[in-house]
Amino acid sequence: MRRYGKNPDEDDVRVRPNRKGNRPRTNIRPKHEDAAEGFVLTVDRGRLHVLVEDRTIVAMKARELGRKGAVVGDRVAVVGDLSGAKDTLARIVRVEGRSSVLRRTADDDDPYERVVVANADQLAIVTALADPEPRPRLIDRCLVAAYDAGLEPLLVLTKSDLASADKLLESYGTLGVRHVVTSREELADGGAAERVREQLTGRVTAFVGHSGVGKTTLVNALVERQRATGHVNAVTGRGRHTTTSALALPLPDGSGWVIDTPGVRSFGLNHIDPSRVIHAFPDLEPGTEGCPRACSHDEQDCALDQWVSDGHADPQRLYSLRRLLATRERREGD
Ligand SMILES: Nc1nc2c(ncn2[C@@H]2O[C@H](COP(=O)(O)OP(=O)(O)OP(=O)(O)O)[C@@H](O)[C@H]2O)c(=O)[nH]1
Ligand SMILES: [Zn+2]
């Protein structure tokens, strides 16, 4: 399974808590050599809930971190009281390099870009096939955010007992996005959780979806076993309903992480860089070499039209890319 260790490019060494205290003491020890490694599970009113070995501890950011914050999914170094006992508070002294960052602006009028989840490698976009009606533009915007962040998208289409998935899947066919379709019946017999879990093994998957699509129902089914043993309740017991943070939940048998994010009404895309989105289209990317500087890829001189008419890529792919890039402009109802 994927390791969540630090970025191999970082030169700081892996450190372990020196509990026995039998290491020689010198004055030239690197700073915070005794720090333990932790994994941020959730953030609640400035307090970070961090998994250290098999304990959940509550920590705050050390002042020396400055403005740099830790978010759910971050690998961090923690010092202080690591017992996890009630009312103890540890300190986060370092945030390790991130392999990915999922950002959003709360909406397009929001000038602040927020990192929502660190180190995820997959984005599960949960959409109901009916009740509420699917919002293709919102799906497209989530796809753009995934491509921008370098996360592999996964479409999870719920409530197939209410409406067929055919039409929606048709419009995502050329994008080659993986998908899972679930129904009420399969939720009840465990089939839904099983098929979604197959797509999550060994990965850190952030789940997004707007209110009412059945995301909570699905996430509960996925992590059922942990909830039943109370392991996760220790983390979620506090402030789950007041927090606006994401929440990391382990899949059974350590087979990956589900990161549940609060319901999205919109997915602001102010921060998106088209060149990072195009990176997810390796068949089109080389064709942009002939583009004018800062090409929007939807203009007269865009070299992609020629690239496609020369037969280097499927015109449907260019159409899909342009459709996605166009969702960056906000419209009523986004
Ligand atoms: N018919 C049908 N209903 C479903 C299905 N999955 C979930 N629901 C229902 O849809 C409603 C919303 O489900 P939730 O899991 O609360 O949805 P959510 O996306 O978490 O929404 P918020 O809690 O508002 O963020 C509930 O009444 C569920 O019972 C499904 O596959 N089919
Ligand atoms: Zn172009």
From TrEMBL:
GO terms for cellular component: cytoplasm. Residues 99-267 form the CP-type G domain. Residues 16-29 have a biased composition (Basic residues). Its main location: cytoplasm. GTP binds at T158, K159, S160, D161, G209, H210, S211, G212, V213, G214, K215, T216, T217. Binds 1 zinc ion per subunit. Transmembrane segments: none annotated. Its cofactor is Zn(2+). Its EC number is 3.6.1.-. One of its GO terms (molecular function) is metal ion binding. Residues 1-31 are annotated as: Disordered. Residues 118-265 form the EngC GTPase domain. It is found in: Cytoplasm. One of its GO terms (biological process) is ribosomal small subunit biogenesis. Zn(2+) binds at C291, C295, H297, C302. It is an enzyme of class 3 (hydrolase). Keywords: Cytoplasm, GTP-binding, Hydrolase, Metal-binding, Nucleotide-binding, Ribosome biogenesis, RNA-binding, rRNA-binding, Zinc. Pfam families: RsgA_GTPase (PF03193). Monomer. Associates with 30S ribosomal subunit, binds 16S rRNA. Belongs to the TRAFAC class YlqF/YawG GTPase family. RsgA subfamily. PANTHER family: SMALL RIBOSOMAL SUBUNIT BIOGENESIS GTPASE RSGA, SMALL RIBOSOMAL SUBUNIT BIOGENESIS GTPASE RSGA 1, MITOCHONDRIAL-RELATED. One of several proteins that assist in the late maturation steps of the functional core of the 30S ribosomal subunit. Helps release RbfA from mature subunits. May play a role in the assembly of ribosomal proteins into the subunit. Circularly permuted GTPase that catalyzes slow GTP hydrolysis, GTPase activity is stimulated by the 30S ribosomal subunit. This is Small ribosomal subunit biogenesis GTPase RsgA. It comes from Streptomyces albireticuli. The gene is rsgA.
